[in-house]
Design goal:
heterodimer; A: alpha+beta; Butyryl-Coa Dehydrogenase, subunit A, domain 1; Butyryl-CoA Dehydrogenase, subunit A, domain 2; Butyryl-CoA Dehydrogenase, subunit A, domain 3; four-stranded antiparallel β-sheet; B: alpha+beta; 3 domains; four-stranded mixed β-sheet; 11 helices; 10 strands; globular
């Protein structure tokens, strides 16, 4: 029984935490309200440290680490609200590794590893769930509008969901090519920038089929769960630190059960989410049959934990927490960005129950 | 990451499984009717004795105490295998899980020699006499008195008072009791622990009928009960420290979900069988959301326990995440029960001829109300998480440093 990250993954996590502690965090995130949402110096360091290469196979210029590496990196980037497109790149890398042909991998993975290519998934279209896509592909050309797409302005490659002959699948779209237009989209998250991608017959290569698309959704959900866990943990830590310091009615507010029980509930929700996220990391690394169930549970549990921690962090801070100058808003806003990033809680809860039904049907 | 047993653990599991298959055949299925009291005691003792002869008792205890000297992992493996059966184990859980470890940690060699072996062999049943009507969560506020019978240094003690929520007191031979021996000092400092003979003069256990209709608990009255000084556990005034030994063991014992309680899979099957105006209940969006929540809590605790097993199997101490177990399990049982009853419409209320699965959900809904209180209420457990794990300041305790007999409730 070894239900924990490997020592290698733990070492990488410590390294990432150290860098992001020094160079990211909410105070740094605040500076990006007026910027373009990318801390280029930090991103250069992330690339130099090999984190975009971590998951890329050695044959394509990477380090060839297991899925655990991406999980710990996503968690630490989430904890620090790091203004780098790491989460997008890790999720896009996962698509190329899981679904790409040898030619597609050879064309794109070396650039992702060395930082010359920023790749982003682009599945969102307004009110549609991930199961649907209005964008469509015909004769190798893709048309439609994808928005909001995180980190789009920094990207050279998009992994786009679109309706093809067999259903919704993923397509590779070179954003430096023709018939591609990118424009900013304002969102509730002031730090992570989103964009709108308008495709008018741009060249598109299929990346796996419709079943591959759903397999990628599960993998992206695992990475998203770790990012949410990281962000939620930071919000809880901020709330607990304030409860230990703020005095009201002659004592620290952390003494009041109305406050301390909220903090305990943050911990409870986080630890449930962490257990499911670890299970999902295992399922992803082992290509286990439980991946869909584990990834769905990890996503729902982590979004629940994040929403609770981000919302109650503001509440525990009281009036000061509602001011523009308080950092509470960054967790509160990022909570919405992560909840919208890959299909709603409702979509994933339904997907969880469906996967349980299918497993039970197989078992019966 | 790897969910398989180490070769040693796998071998131990295989041996346990073989032994259970050979010796537990009659407990493969639940009893058709609940056992009578005498039958329960007879079967519990026989099962304990059989395990004892096969070396499956006191698994983690030192060999000098008659145990097996093995790791917590071995105990967990045996319990996992045993939980596939419906063998009667409850009668000895408190005695062997909490009382006897306290006895062999704090008792004299003579006391250990007299009491440990018969308990382990299933010959003597023990109970834990801690809570009182006026002292539940606030255990150090107990009022049961123990007074020396004379000024002699080894004088007997005379105990007077009342205990409550004492599991299996009416079936027990001995108990460990925490008493107040000095009311003139602050409440944690004036306590002393004793071993008491439950068949002795002046001890009266009255079963308490629970809200659920069952009677697992008792009120126990002590009237002039005489206890020898040799049966004191720990020094006079050290009762709180001794009680903490017991409670640490209690937290390990009351952590998980009661075995054979309904789980998310049973809830899903149940919701599939229920026809609503718009098809099977499981197809309804809100039901699916609530089933997902049940899965996350139910499986999340199992996975959290696997994190602990993982630490134990590497010889490490499990992390603080273990403290979430009971508070999640009890409330989830209640919510799953309530959902099953809701889905049943008015039939959810009717107990006569209830479908066996519905009856199970009715039972667990009723039991959950008690589980949320037993072994630390939801509120006390949240205090513990907030204070010991997150480091928040403790509640203000205005009576903490005042002499017990001077502290006045506000």
């Amino acid at each position: 029984m070894d239900f924990d990250f490997s020592d290698d993954a733990k070492t990488l996590r410590e390294q990432a935490r150290k860098l992001f502690d020094e160079r990211a965090g909410p105070a740094v995130a605040r500076k990006h309200i007026d910027g373009d949402g990318i801390d280029r110096d930090l991103w250069r360091t992330v690339v130099e440290l090999g984190w975009t290469a971590a998951r890329v196979p050695e044959a394509h210029g990477g380090i060839g680490l297991s899925a655990e590496a991406s999980c710990v990196l996503a968690e630490e980037a989430g904890r620090a609200l790091a203004a780098v497109p790491l989460g997008s790149v890790l999720a896009a890398t996962e698509a190329l590794i899981a679904l790409g042909s040898p030619e597609q991998q050879a064309r794109w993975l070396p650039g992702i590893a060395d930082g010359s290519v920023v790749a982003v998934p682009a599945w969102a279209e307004g009110g549609l769930s991930p199961a649907k896509a209005g964008a469509s592909v015909s004769g190798g050309r893709i048309s439609g509008t994808k928005a909001p797409v995180p980190d789009l302005a920094a990207a050279q490659l998009a992994i786009v969901s679109a309706s093809g002959p067999d259903g919704v699948g993923l397509y590779l779209v070179d954003l430096t090519g023709p018939d591609v237009a990118v424009e900013p989209v304002e969102t509730l998250d002031l730090v992570r920038r989103h964009g709108g991608l308008t495709l008018t017959g741009a060249p598109a290569e299929p990346l796996g089929g419709p079943s591959g698309y759903h397999d990628w959704l599960d993998r992206a959900a695992v990475l998203g769960a770790f990012e949410a866990l990281g962000t939620a943990t930071a919000a809880m830590d901020m709330a607990v630190a304030y409860a230990k310091e703020r005095v009201a009615f002659g004592q620290k507010i952390g003494r009041y059960q109305g406050v301390k029980h909220k903090c305990a509930d943050m911990f409870i929700k986080l630890e449930l989410a962490r257990a499911h996220a670890l299970h999902a990391a295992w399922a992803m690394g082992a290509d286990a049959a439980e991946l869909r169930q584990a990834a769905s549970a990890a996503r729902v549990a982590s979004l629940d934990a994040l929403a609770f921690c981000a919302e109650e962090n503001v509440q525990i801070h009281g009036g000061i927490g509602y001011t523009w100058d308080s950092d509470c808003q960054f967790y509160y806003r990022r909570n919405r960005a992560l909840a919208a990033a890959l299909g709603s809680r409702t979509f994933w809860a339904d997907r969880l129950v469906r996967s349980l039904e299918q497993r039970n049907a197989v078992a019966a | 990451m790897d969910f398989t047993d180490s070769p040693d653990d796998a071998a131990y599991r295989a041996r346990a499984r073989d032994w259970l298959a050979a010796n537990g055949a009659e407990y493969r299925t639940p009893p058709a009717e609940p056992y009578s009291r005498d039958e329960l005691v007879r079967r519990s003792r026989a099962w304990q004795k059989a395990k004892h002869q096969a070396g499956y008792t006191g698994i983690t205890w030192p060999k000098s105490m008659g145990g097996q000297g093995l790791s917590p992992m071995h105990a967990i493996i045996f319990n996992q295998e045993q939980s596939r059966y419906f063998a009667p184990t409850g009668l000895f859980e408190i005695g062997l899980g909490m009382c006897i470890p306290t006895v062999f940690t704090h008792g004299s060699p003579e006391i250990i020699a007299r009491y440990v072996a018969p308990a382990l062999a299933g010959d003597e049943v023990w109970c834990q006499l801690f809570s009182e009507p006026a002292a539940g969560s606030d255990l150090a506020g107990i009022r049961t008195r123990a007074v020396r019978d004379s000024d002699a240094p080894d004088a007997d003690w005379i105990i007077d008072g009342q205990k409550v929520w004492t599991t299996n007191a009416h079936l027990s031979d001995y108990g460990i009791i925490v008493t107040r021996t000095d009311p003139s000092v602050p409440k944690h400092k004036g306590l002393t622990m004793f071993i008491v003979d439950m068949h002795g003069d002046g001890v009266e256990a009255r079963p308490l009928k629970q809200m659920s209709g069952g009677s697992d608990f008792n009120e126990v009255f002590f009237t002039g009960v005489r206890v020898k000084d040799s049966h004191r556990l720990g020094a006079v005034g050290d009762g709180w420290k001794v009680a903490l030994t017991t409670l640490m063991n209690e937290r390990l014992a009351v952590g998980g979900k009661p075995s054979h309680a309904p789980d998310y899979a049973m809830l899903m099957d149940f919701a599939r069988r229920i026809e609503t105006d718009t098809g099977p209940a499981i197809e309804q969006r809100d039901v699916r959301q609530r089933v997902a929540a049940a899965y996350i809590a139910d499986e999340g605790i199992k996975l959290t326990q696997m994190r602990a097993l993982s630490a134990l199997s590497k010889g490490q101490v499990p992390g603080p995440e273990q403290s979430i177990s009971k508070v999640v399990v009890a409330k989830t049982m209640q919510e799953m029960g309530a959902l099953a009853l809701d889905l049943s419409e008015a039939a959810g209320l009717v107990t006569a001829d209830a479908d066996p699965v519905l009856a199970k959900f009715q039972g667990s809904y009723m039991a959950a109300a008690g589980l949320r209180i037993a072994g630390g209420t939801d509120e006390i457990l949240r205090n513990i998480i907030a204070e010991r794990v997150l480091g928040l300041p403790g509640d203000l305790r205005p009576d903490k440093d005042a002499p017990f007999n001077a502290a006045v409730a506000a």
